[in-house]
Amino acid sequence: MEPLVRMVGIRKTFPGIVANDNVDFELMPGEIHALLGENGAGKTTLMNILYGIYRPDSGRIYVKGKEVSINSPADAIKLGIGMVHQNFLLIDSFTVAENVALGFAKKQIRPDIEVKRRIIELGERYGLKVDPDAYVWQLSAGEKQRVEIIKALYRESDVLILDEPTSVLTPIEVNELFSTLKKLKSEGKGIVFITHKLEEVFQVADRVTVMRKGRVVGVKRRDETSKEELARMMVGREILFRVEKKEGEKGPVILEVVDLKALNDKGVLALKGVSFKVHSGEIFGIAGVAGNGQRELIEVITGLRKAISGKVLINGIDMTNRSPREIGLLGTAHIPEERVKMGIMPGMDLAENLILKKYFLPPFCRKGILDLKSIRSNAEKLKTEYDIVAPSIRVKAKFLSGGNIQRLILARELSSDPKLVIAAHPTYGLDVGATEYIRRKLVEERDKGAAVLLVSEDLEEILSLSDTIAVMYQGEIMGIGRPDEFSMEEIGLMMAGSRRMKVIS
Amino acid sequence: MRIAFVKREKAGFRRMIAVRTTAMLLALASVGMIFWFYGADPVEVYREIFLGAFGTKTGVSEVIVKLIPLLLCGVGLSLVFKGQIWNIGAEGQLILGAIAATGVGLWVPLPSYLVIPAMFLSGFLAGALWALIPAVLRAKMNVNEVITTLLMNYVAIRLLYYLVYGPWRAKEQWGNMTWSGFAQTAILPDHATLQTIPGTRIHYITLIIALTSLIFVYLLMNRTSFGYELKVVGDNLMAARFAGINISRVILISMIISGGLAGIAGVGEIAGIQHRLRPGFSVGYGYTAIIIAWLGGLNPLAVLVSTVFFSGILVGGSYIQISFGMPVGVINMFNGIILLFLLASEVFLNYSIKLRR
After folding, report:
1. Transmembrane segments in this chain: where (chain B) (predicted)?
2. Strand A207-212's sheet: what is its strand order?
3. Does this chain's domain A5-235 share its CATH topology with A244-331+418-505?
4. What is the pLDDT of residue A264?
5. How far is residue B13 from each of residues B16, B155, B213, B217, B342, measured CA to CA in Å?
6. What distance lies between CA A411 and its chain's CA centroid?
7. I want to staple B93 with a disulfide (CB 3.0 to 4.6 A). Which of A182, A232, A449, B259 is the partner?
8. B217 close contact with A: CB closer than 8 A
9. pLDDT tens track for A332-378
10. Distance (Å, rounded) from C-alpha B182 to C-alpha B175?
11. Whether B53 contacts B318, CB under 8 Å
12. pLDDT of A195 strictly over 80
């Protein structure tokens, strides 16, 4: 049988990052093919290439045996490829029927009659119930996803790509989605299912391609693999390098979080009573798949999000729901998850970026007047000390590479000798050199006596840096212990929430 | 063949000048086409505009007269725009300043040497207050300030109409006959009007205030912690939150300054030029100032240059009405077309255009 899609030797780079490196991928008709990997492994990039959003730097794509060049989603749709993105691409103020028809109505006069008929027909056939006259803003996430699938089917897609489709669904909706997918499969359509959840692979996929760091680690049939094997492939067994690290000297408790509860942006409980302590001279690593409350946890500790109950104590002082400035002035450094969106001012220069946390304090500012000379000398000093590669301190932050942006943030946050360092995904998407540098810096801070809270999806990072690790799943801590108390596989499974460890404290 | 927009990694200063200049030239060429449709030789018209504005002593002095309100509004707008706070309401803030100054000048009993300072102060406060309403709505409830500031211009115009047609309308007297006169207030007493440079209409006190405000805003933007906060808010709101900057405070203060300066522009127009409040005393200075601030790249010093340019167009443009019999609307069109080209040219700063097969 001829594959529906064959991608050969795909390579795609973004400034500073190789997102896909010589990737091969194949999808057969009547197959649900899971694309498994951690965030940043390059799964979505690969599928965006197939859907024409990105163009590969090199590599070939065959659809139904013919080599094709896909320059835009319009090309992909013409070839029968449909994609449901993680963030839905629907127009809220339009009805379901209008969204489905948008650009693809088959009749010029009263297209709605035919469109609505098809929506109801497709809905009945595949269990995708949705009211064609409802406005999209009235729909739940699950219903919106159904609209997206109907949209793809209306355009007569044979290949359906779903990017982390279950992340927005309730358990019941997940089951409904899976039965829809099985129905589609039985009609000979090919489905690509992007996920980082191991259970889902075993529930629904026929084959799985595992990706790590932009490369394909392996392709397995579901019945010839196991959860343990996939977990190992996904997180990687070998450790690229070890950070030189002596045994830490634990001092007094610097950060204490007590039964913390907080909501996420959608108003859903994202932290369900989290408690832990981080000592001076300790790196406390929190592992877990993104979206399990880590972001909310960090935001509450740093004052960017309100806790609804529980306490955050820094140096024994109750800092719950205090402002980011008060928390910062207490000696807290924050290396944020979204380094470009939150960590820098892209349109301002290096010198200005380097004083973001201290611009109102001497020597940079006296009585509201800035001291440009000390701002400049501070920048020159930090640029050398932290090895920030930039033509001058007047260059705007947006022109720096990812690694140098992170060095900038590190320079700014660590130069004031913090007592508590909070680092979220500090090496995400960085090359090996920058990664190593940043890990070394975190260990240095620990050795100087700071308490370091490290949140990362990169298990190697957590295991090689942390003195204590915790795994978070759905707003709760699944287990706390020393790294040598857990195997890679155990942690991988805890991250997927499939086994709950006893809490060691 | 397709046209692809590729994001540029770098937009250099040179490229910015090149893109802006090209946009200006294309805008002038487009307006030239319209002159040509009117049956006038575009080159001749532009020559007339230039000579009308800068060729005679009267022309130059009139350019300075127009420059005063434009500069005050433009400088204030470049400040708020730097924080990405979109105050479209300078026109209304200017009108409120004029109303307050007229009220103080006509009716507040003060020693005569205090009247002018009181007019400037009240004008500043009235403009600031008018700007403060949308600023508070934005800061506290995240109401889009583009809409509110724009719509409050119309409220300000209606308020002006109400006053000059209603309670503030001056009685006219001829002999011993009185009747309700034109839609305007009584004329201001002498101690409530500004001196001018002899032989011109340049009310130099307002000019000095305008130039001082330019230096003040420049220093505020570049040499103070407030200016730093404003730039952070404008460049990355998330980073401002991250750094614990009080974003509401930045919005309120910058809007107060911006609205206040527009209010002062209104005071100058009343006390320096009109000497009474009447409808239509502002020919859209508050709107033109938006283009001025933008063309000046939100840098107060460059705003001075763009103000001279637009004052020149306003003054020179009035000559072409006479010489070529073109309607006044042509000048408004001028501003609109320049803004359109400037905004459209932004894309060439951030993207390079490539043809793909």
Report:
1. 21-39, 59-81, 88-108, 114-137, 149-168, 202-221, 242-265, 277-295, 302-322, 328-349
2. A81-84, A159-163, A190-195, A32-36, A207-212, A215-221
3. yes
4. 87
5. 5, 40, 26, 22, 16
6. 24
7. B259
8. no
9. 999 998 888 899 999 999 999 999 999 999 999 999 999 999 999 99
10. 17
11. no
12. yes
Locate B178 and state its tokens.
């009185």
What is the tens place of the pLDDT at every residue in A167-186?
767 667 888 899 999 999 99
Global pTM value: 0.76
Beta pairing, strands A17-27 & A5-14: antiparallel
Separation of CA B318 from chain center: 19
CB pairs under 8 A between A and B: 69
Q: Does domain A244-331+418-505 have CATH number 3.40.50.300?
A: yes
Q: Does B350 touch chain A (CB under 8 A)?
A: no
Same domain, B247 and B313: yes
CB atoms within 10 A of CB A465: 27
Q: Is the minimum CB–CB distance between A52 and chain B shorter than 8 Å?
A: no
Q: What is the pLDDT of residue A171?
A: 67
B235 touches chain A (CB under 8 A): yes
CATH code for position B210: 1.10.3470
Q: What is the pLDDT of residue B347?
A: 80
Hey, what are A175's tokens?
């089951």
Kindly list the residues from chain B whose CB atom is less than 8 angstroms away from the CB atom of residue A424: none
Quote the pLDDT of residue A349: 93
B219 and B79, same structural domain? yes
Q: What is the mean pLDDT of residues A148-152?
A: 92
How high is the mean pLDDT of chain A? 88
> What dotted CATH number matches A5-235?
3.40.50.300
Q: Are residues B85 and B26 in the same domain?
A: no
User: Per residue in A23-82, pLDDT tens?
Assistant: 999 999 999 999 998 767 889 899 999 999 999 999 999 999 999 999 999 899 999 999
Note whether residue B51 is domain-resident: yes
Whether the predicted pLDDT of B258 surpasses 80? yes
* A305 and chain B in contact, CB less than 8 A: no
> From B223, which residue of chain A is nearest by alpha-carbon distance?
A370
Determine contact, residues A486/A319, Cβ cutoff 8 Å: no
Distance CA B213, CA B258 (A): 10
Domain borders along chain A are: 5-235, 244-331+418-505, 345-417
- B23 and B123 inside one domain: no
Yes or no, beta carbons of B244 and A303 under 8 Å apart: yes
Q: Is the pLDDT of residue B215 over 70?
A: yes
B283 and B239 within one domain: yes
- Residues B25 and B102 both lie in one domain: no
Show the domain range for B210: 41-325
| Closest partner CB to B223 (pick from A347, A352, A369) | A369
Kindly state whether residues B29 and B169 are assigned to the same domain: no
Question: B31 vs chain A: nearest CA distance in angstroms?
Answer: 34
Q: Is B356 on the interface with A (CB under 8 A)?
A: yes
